[in-house]
Amino acid sequence: MSKQIYITWIDFQRRAESMNQYVDFDLYYLPPPVSRKWLKPFGYLLQAWRTIRIVLAEKPDVVWVQSPPSLVPHILLGLRAFTRRYGLIVDCHNASMLPPWVHFPAATWVLNHSDRVLVHNEEMRGVVEAHGVRPELVRVLEDPPAMLDLPPAAPRAPDARPYVLVPCSFNPDEHLPLPAVMGAARLLPEVDFKITGRKWKAEAQGLTKDAPPNVHFTDYLTIGQFEALLAGANVVLGVTSRTNCQLSVANEALGAHSPLVLSDTGILRKMFGDAALFGENTPEALAAALGEALAHQPEMRAKSEALKLRRQESWLAEARRASQIGNGPASGGTPGAGTLVKPPAGR
Asked: pLDDT tens digits for 129-160?
């Protein structure tokens, strides 16, 4: 069995965690050691050194690496030229094809000298290939359904108000629809809305100033705190303004068997149409979809669970195809990306 590692320069990501429940790699988080933007280049030097040390110590057969930052594949490709050869799989998130990372020097050249380039949906495949990446290197690997070991939902009083969980990082694609979420909350005053993410970002964007009284900003949550909220949510709402975004929250909701409402995009309908309800990013459309989800919670929970099981099977087949790298242009001679394990039953 080949030894695999996955390196990402952030502190946590659900996609990587979920993939690690299906794919046998050791996951390394290397978050930025500094927060101030002007210090980031110095932080990158430390992250690069840690990356090199991990690879030299682990001697992997295959390295999976997340991009962006786009310089991480550069480091690993350069290191491979001076050490034992290993397969290199670059997991390209959508932001890798947006400024500033898409303009990073030699970004396309490095992808073309990797062994596999993963994108998250068919639309992004077209974007990556349009930037000059060789089509034979590109594979679509969507986020797998999260396998969550959720705590039991805390007992709630019979008269407790229902709540909608809105996982949020306040990135630009989420910032644009959030006023519509606020408007939907005003149309559903009997329902609480819990918006996760760092509160100072919400304040900086002016979202807390005129928020209705049934909207609550949770501030930063630990993984355990977030999963406790997820376990008790009546509905999970995921919003985006990007047509090519697949929303990690949707797979978290499937993992929790939660009723799910999403922004109405083609990608999200294709991936989650069997379980979710959809609304345009307007107060009226989101409120209508949320109201229907709240009224049909048992049926929607059953649909989420059924779609999770189907997506697990299809994702495993997709991952087996995507991870075969033996014939890549710069392959280290590894016949494949390792052992894919069957997910356990249950959550």
From this structure: 999 999 999 999 999 988 887 766 666 777 78
State how beta strands 163-166 and 138-140 pair.
unpaired
Q: Is the dihedral of CA 241, 246, 252, 253 positive or negative?
A: positive
Q: Please write the tens of the pLDDT for every residue from 60-111.
A: 999 999 999 999 999 999 999 998 789 999 999 988 998 899 999 999 999 9
Q: How many CB atoms lie within 10 A of CB 292?
A: 15
Give 250's DSSP letter.
H
- The pLDDT of residue 171 is 81
Whether the pLDDT of residue 173 is over 80: the answer is: no
More confident residue, 214 or 172: 214
H or E segment to which residue 140 belongs = strand 138-140
Dihedral in degrees, nearest 10, Cα atoms 238, 242, 248, 254: 50
All domains of the chain in start order, with CATH? 4-141+312-322 (3.40.50.2000), 163-295 (3.40.50.2000)
Question: Rounded to whole angstroms, what are the CA distances from 151 to 219, 227, 228?
Answer: 20, 7, 6
